Here is the input.
Amino acid sequence: MNNLFLRTARFYDLDMSDLATHDLAFYRRYTAQSGGPVLELACGTGRVTIPLAKAGHRVHGVDLSQSMLAILDEKVRRLAPEIRERISFTEGDMAEFALRMRFSTVLIPFRAFQALTSFEQQRGCLQAVKRHLEPGGRFILNVFLPHPRIMQTWESPDDRVDWVAHDPKTGETITRRSRRTQIDPGRQIIYPELTFEVTAQDGSTRTFTDQLALRYFYPYQIQTLLITHGFKIEEEWGDYRRSPLGEGPEQVFVCTPNA
Here is the structure.
């Protein structure tokens, strides 16, 4: 299956790209304004979940990847009891979920909504989000802004190095490479391949690879999806520094449910 990080989940937290660090202050700001419990869909290893719990929020995470949730569980066990008790999580599909509570804020960070490659999945997710929001609650969604010539420029047979990191726990050097294997313009799906090359202290090397499938959206498409599924877009930004939409690499939408 795609997008489950079955082989590469343990390297996820080493990603120190701008997006993986600059969104936290944004989410802290909006959850502080809303107060109340937070639902994070595609919570993964807890990159956003744990900082929000440390900020005093009760956070429930949902993720389909057992590999990612196993890492989150390990991290939660090491937290102080007063923080640990504010975190819960469920293995489940963000395209169809039913929980026994509502939330003041629902988040889908780090472009995770793009893992829903069919309209049926997108519709199911947005309907479930609306059911789980408290009246007046906020829904924050992030997807990337496609390059205007994505159909002509996406595919590339060559690997590129995204980053190199040192894992202090193991002493290993981790190199992440990516390859743009395929694009389906009709369905607007890209198929990136991620490979993590692990070099041990003795110089030996192992590689771990996962294939992803991601649906890309132009602004009018994601705006239409949100509006037709009962959301009012209150704010829209081009990045987490709150640049105007279209002037940054991201699309960040802050929404409330219509009555």
Summary: The first helix runs from residue 19 to 34.
